[in-house]
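Researcher: Sequence recovery benchmark, item below. Answer with residues only.
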């Protein structure tokens, strides 16, 4: 019988996962492992809505601001590091909390990733040429045709992710989405997934407000300080790529901010599509009451006993 438990808090960007994860960590007197791939980088606190000092003090967190944007870090490395951290934590805790909206990173922890081939130099060169001559849109088009399932959930603005998926498909002649879907039997802990959901209107309103708050909190200065690194993969992401275009004089500031909001909403839509396919997520409604929260704790304890 599996003795240890992992409670994974999931949901789209801006829905309130951090608060729920901290409440659960305090209730179970345990620690939090982040699977938000953007929050790994210490230079990107504002634009990734990393937990505040106060929130970090609420419960011990791991994989928040633990890397520099200049460091290369793959999903495979994260899987290895996260499992090692869980093994450490399970020595003193029966339950650990996992939280984050990076779908593939959560999957890496709770299910594992298949052994995928190393990058093929010829494929990479060919794809790089397509990117330079026809733009990221062409890569999006190729991936959509080869693997519509993965296209539906990947960050389509991150050209490295597109290059990697297409390369693997070309090498293996199999869909990338199928190759990264493996059995959960490889994990020796129980997984309970908790989600927070809201109406599309409420969620989009929260996202728009959150972007305004990021701007008030100094996102512009944060991005300006990272301008020399703008070619790095980690910065090719919502909140940063738009403001780099402002600094390059391509866009005015109001338009750049409106694009951050639009791209954040699009990312949330992809997250919702991904989570909707799962039948093992127990949902709380946004704005849940204390009674709802207590009912959730009761439900979790019942799952533990099973």
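Model:
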């Amino acid at each position: 019988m599996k003795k240890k438990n992992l409670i994974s808090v999931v949901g789209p960007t801006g829905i309130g996962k951090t608060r729920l994860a901290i409440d659960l960590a305090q209730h179970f007197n345990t620690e939090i492992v982040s699977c938000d791939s953007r929050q790994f980088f210490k230079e990107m606190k504002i634009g990734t809505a990393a937990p505040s000092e106060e929130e970090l003090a609420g419960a011990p967190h791991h994989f928040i601001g633990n890397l520099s944007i200049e460091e290369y870090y793959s999903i495979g490395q994260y899987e290895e590091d996260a499992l090692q951290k869980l093994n450490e934590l399970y020595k003193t805790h029966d339950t650990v909390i996992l939280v984050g909206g990076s779908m593939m990173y959560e999957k890496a922890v709770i299910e594992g990733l298949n052994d995928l081939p190393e990058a093929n130099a010829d494929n990479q060169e060919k794809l790089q040429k397509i990117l330079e001559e026809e733009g990221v849109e062409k890569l999006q088009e190729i991936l959509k045709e080869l693997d519509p399932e993965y296209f539906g959930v990947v960050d389509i603005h991150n050209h490295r992710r597109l290059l990697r998926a297409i390369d693997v498909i070309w090498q293996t002649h199999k869909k990338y989405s199928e190759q990264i879907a493996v059995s959960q039997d490889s994990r020796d802990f129980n997984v309970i997934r908790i989600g927070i959901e809201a109406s599309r209107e409420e969620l989009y309103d929260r996202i728009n407000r959150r972007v305004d708050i990021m701007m008030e909190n100094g996102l512009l200065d944060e991005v300006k300080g990272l301008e020399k690194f703008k070619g790095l993969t980690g910065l090719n992401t919502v909140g940063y790529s738009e403001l780099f275009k402002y600094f390059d004089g391509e866009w005015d500031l109001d338009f750049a901010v409106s694009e951050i909001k639009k791209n954040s909403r699009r990312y949330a839509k992809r997250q919702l599509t991904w989570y909707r396919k799962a039948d093992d997520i127990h949902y709380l409604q946004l704005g849940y009451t204390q009674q709802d929260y207590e009912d959730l704790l009761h439900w979790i304890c019942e799952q533990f006993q099973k």
